[in-house]
Amino acid sequence: MKTKNSEMLNNMDVKKLLIKLSIPATMGMMVNGLYNLMDTLFVAVSEGEYAIGALAFAFPVQMIVMAIGLMIGIGAASVFSRAYGSNDQELMKSTVNAALRFDVIAALLVSVLAFVFLKDLLLFFGASEGNYQFSYDYLSVILIGLVPLTLSMVLNNLTRAEGRANIAMKAMILGTGLNILLDPIFIFDWGLGMGVRGAAIATVSSQIIAFLYIFRQSFAKDSVLRISLKKFFFIELKTVRKIVVIGAPTFIRNSIGALIAILIYKIIEYYTGDTSELYISMYGVINRIIFFVFMPAFGLVQGLTPIAGFNYGAKNYKRLRDVIIYTTKLITIYFIFGLIFIQLFSPLIFDVFSKNDDVFFITYGSNAFRTMSWGILIVGFQIILGSVYQSFGYPRRAMLISLSRQLIFFVPIVFIMTYILGLDGLWYSFIIADILSGLLSLFMLRHELKVLKIKSQ
Question: What integer pLDDT is reported at residue 3 of this predicted model?
Fold first, then answer.
């Protein structure tokens, strides 16, 4: 089945194709990252620095529940891309419908369970009486909108996989732009004055609109997704298994990221005692900024993923190798500029997030951010390799790369470094874990490129 998009993925110059697919993905991811920043900023201006800590405690739960959509979306996109490249129309249709149906069931189940045990989860994470209510108000609303949120993620990945990156970008910009517009109206006293709960309502409302847009676009004439609403709860388990196996590294990475966040909160609490809420708020700001800085890199690999999956399925190994090398160069250059940005503007960033111009909050927070950011110079190799392995359908290798930075390296290192240096050791642990996982990824990436070179001869 030759289409305009399949011809593009198969024949267009890979450098131009990567830019063509990456720009919409990057813009969408940047806007999405901006939403997270603005959400936190509006809450900080309305409620103060300590409310940032409340959102930080909500972050692990949010990561775990959103990991469902990411797992299904990325897994389905990988299976779909390779089926698209090999012209397996039956598998293409089966993948799309199994992914959507499985997501609805999984999201509903996770949403109900998380809502029932939400208070226990937040207290386990370390939320205190001072910020527990903020966290509960935020997450109790987010969980209600989990189904449209995750469905939007799944369709976003599938839309990029079929080569319609502009549609995916427009959906993300629509949802995020609406969210930024609604945030102040719902949060501040001059509007509805709902505070943190208002931020969550704005998020859910905007994500529902974004889902409706991309769902409608999936029925367009130039789409090859072939969504069927008949026998909606009939799911091909064989296809679901393929999706879950490929998407599992993403789910595990996000879930472990949530557990690592809890560990970090516990370490901060252990070393700072009664002042831990302020330090956790600092880490909350760092988390949001890092998320924003990483978005263009994630946008770049999202542009790479459909090209890699399609050409791997079509056995175009030289073309595949060329696009991976080009992506690696671009992402390395980008992270150099990312590091420079963090080093120069950290104090200004923390000043913006401080309602009361707290000197200690600004000074210590910006210094910690500058310290931990040095590792991003090399972490790009991990981002690329994880995406490549998922595109190829190599779940075990993708799992190893996903676990290397957060679990294999960071956990033992953080205990050693904090034992030696106290809380400052936490920030140095990020550098060491990033460097080690980056070097491991570089070594494995070089191996895969050699294999592709041999296959292309």
Answer: 55
Instruction: Compute the distance between CA of residue 421 and CA of residue 2 in angstroms, rounded to an integer.
Output: 60
Contact 377, 227 (CB under 8 A): no
Q: Which of 33, 47, 35, 31 is nearest to 353 (CA)?
A: 47
For residue range 40-54, list pLDDT tens digits in order: 777 777 776 667 776
Q: What's the 3-state SS for the chain? A: CCCHHHHHHHHCCHHHHHHHHHHHHHHHHHHHHHHHHHHHHHHHHHHCHHHHHHHHHHHHHHHHHHHHHHHHHHHHHHHHHHHHHCCCHHHHHHHHHHHHHHHHHHHHHHHHHHHHCHHHHHHHHCCCCCCHHHHHHHHHHHHHHHHHHHHHHHHHHHHHHCCCHHHHHHHHHHHHHHHHHHHHHHHCCCCCCCHHHHHHHHHHHHHHHHHHHHHHHCCCCCCCCCCCCCCCCCCCHHHHHHHHHHHHHHHHHHHHHHHHHHHHHHHHHHHHHHHHHHHHHHHHHHHHHHHHHHHHHHHHHHHHHHHHHHHHHCCCHHHHHHHHHHHHHHHHHHHHHHHHHHHHHHHHHHHHCCCCCCHHHHHHHHHHHHHHHHHHHHHHHHHHHHHHHHHHCCHHHHHHHHHHHHHHHHHHHHHHHHHHHCCHHHHHHHHHHHHHHHHHHHHHHHHHHHHHHHHHC
368: closest CA among 422, 420, 409, 436? 422
Residue 303 identity: G
- Find out whether 335 and 369 touch, Cβ atoms under 8 Å: no
Highest mean pLDDT among 3-17, 24-38, 356-370: 356-370
∠ CA 395-397-399 to the nearest 5 degrees?
65
In Å, how far are 55, 188, 433 from 408, measured between CA atoms?
27, 43, 9
Give the torsion through C-alpha atoms of 254, 255, 261, 265, to 10 deg: 160
Measured in whole angstroms, the distance separating CA 436 from the mean position of its chain's CA atoms is 21
Nearest Cα to Cα of residue 110 among 149, 155, 137: 149
Which tens digit of pLDDT belongs to each residue from 140-191? 888 888 888 889 889 988 888 887 878 888 888 888 888 888 888 988 878 7
Q: How far apart are CA 289 and CA 327, in angstroms?
A: 23
Cα distances (Å, whole numbers) of residue 291 to 29, 66, 213, 242: 10, 15, 25, 29
In this prediction, residue 327 has a pLDDT band, given cuts at 50, 70 and 90, of very high
